[in-house]
Amino acid sequence: MAKTCPVTKKGSQVGGGYSNRIRATKFNPTGKVRKHPNLQKKRIFVPELNRTVTVTLSTQGLRTVAKNGAYKTLKAAGVI
Predict the structure, then answer these.
(1) Any residues with CB less than 8 A from the CB of 6 and at least 6 apart, and which?
(2) How many Å apart are CA 33 and CA 17, to the nearest integer?
(3) Could you give the CA distance from residue 78 to residue 28 in angstroms, rounded to a whole number?
(4) Is residue 4 one of the residues assigned to a domain?
(5) Which pTM was predicted?
(6) Residue 38, domain member (yes or no)
(7) C-alpha–C-alpha distance, residues 64 and 27, integer Å
(8) CB 39 within 8 A of CB 2
(9) Across the chain, what does the average pLDDT equal?
(10) Residue 6 DSSP SS3
């Protein structure tokens, strides 16, 4: 599966692993945590091409496709 969304350009981020209780009492690091975007593999029918395209998009990217249309959004992202 892809690690970034081609529509929104969302990728993974590195976040800290501290809780407020640990921060308040003593230095006990829990290390860094990689946080991944919510990527979904979907088959989207594009009427302009008269075919189905399988893409891996973030949930925000799916909302963008639903709002602006599949052909326009995927063409701008370079998927089709």
Answers:
(1) 55, 57, 61, 74, 77, 78, 79
(2) 6
(3) 45
(4) no
(5) 0.78
(6) yes
(7) 43
(8) yes
(9) 88
(10) coil
